[in-house]
Specification:
With 472 residues, this protein is an alpha/beta fold. It is built from 18 helices and 19 strands. β18 and β19 form a beta hairpin. α1 crosses α2. The N and C termini lie far apart (62 Å).
Amino acid sequence: MYYRLTEPYAFRGYKGLPYAIRAEQGRKLFDKPLFFGKEPFLALLYCNGTEPVELDALDEKTRAVFQELLSSDILSASETPMAPLKSYQRYHVYPSRYLERVQWSITGRCNFRCRHCLVSAPDGHHPEPTLDECLDVIRQMEDCGVHQVDITGGEPLVRRDCEAIFRALSEHRVFINTIFTNASLLTGEVLDLLKKHGHHPGFQLSFDGLGCHDWLRGVPGAEKQADAAFRLLKERGFHATAAMCVHRKNRDSLRDTVNYLARNGVSRLRVNAPQALGLWKQYARDYALTNQALWDVIRDYIPCYFEDGMPIDIDLDGYFSCKRGSTAYKVPFVHHAPSNPDWHKLPYCEALQHTAYISPEGHLLPCMSFSDTPVENHSPSVFTQPLGELTQKSYYADLVATKLSDLLAKEPECAQCPHLPDCCGGCMQASMTEDGDYLVRDKDICWFFHNVGEAAVRAVADAAIASIQPQP
């Protein structure tokens, strides 16, 4: 039997463990990538319409992959040779593990003085890479099949050569998914430049409480600048989300903040307590909320969210998540591990499997939260080794390959905990020791399961939902 891609599909293949393919139509990707072993991957290389493939001679998993692609009309089959693939359809194999998206700090500089900065930008801990270094990173992302990037900093818009970066990303078919910004430099001219070079990203703006924003950002007038930016994005049709760091000074502003953001076209708010990293180490003692105080804020707000008509998508630090206009909520801290007896062999952190972070120095890290930690000191740089190589064999690769069983071997108390199938170890970075040991139980999620639990969150949310629903 002969197989080939059905037009206008093309395959992107990733030659890193696990092997992966992704079908695409131009910039439109087919559902999710498929992950499997080496044998199905190699078999698909022969699906060019001119070389026969004996499906019955292949293993069961390979046959299942073929059947899935045939049923999705991505592959076509014929008993006789078919027309060869068009040039754009030819299977492109990348020398890297699959990366859905890269978050990239294009500068360590910032024009704000945020008291909780993860990368200590006000103290100048991180430099700004040269334009040539940035162009090299972009080439490496293209070489590894990375087609989406989130741009962050520092404050990314402080760079005077942003247009050159926007242009190069477009030329290398790497498209900006989200720009993280403090909004102070966000203007119509910036949006015009993005549009000129084929980008239409979303923007995540920092907004730390109505009437409270300036204090955390360390700059008078920051809240007015953010307000102007929200209005500009709404006017120009750009998607806007917001992130709020909750602490003792803004804990009472959450309800007003949510409703204000909803009125200004913001689709989603992510609320978190700042991590005790970077500059926040200096302020945490006086301003950080305790776990109990954070739960008090969230517990008190959940009824308000439903009373106000679920005005925005919201994520409340792992305790509660809900979509705008819907009463179908989640408790993200709770994972409900599958009944598969091998579930503990799954990756410690699923979120790290298909994303990565590149620091201003080029360090390849699992996520931005590892900045200014001992892990960063051990992490390789894409300025000295190719990105594709680093995704497969490096300190970074070892870290993202960590399994829950690795934690359990170090933390026997966790192995005996009845909450383990629900917490799955929590965040591998959250309780990292000063010497960089990340195989340590997450004390925050541990506190949640022993002091709050899913039932308590659901009791609050369900009561709130019942109160707004019409009585029979």
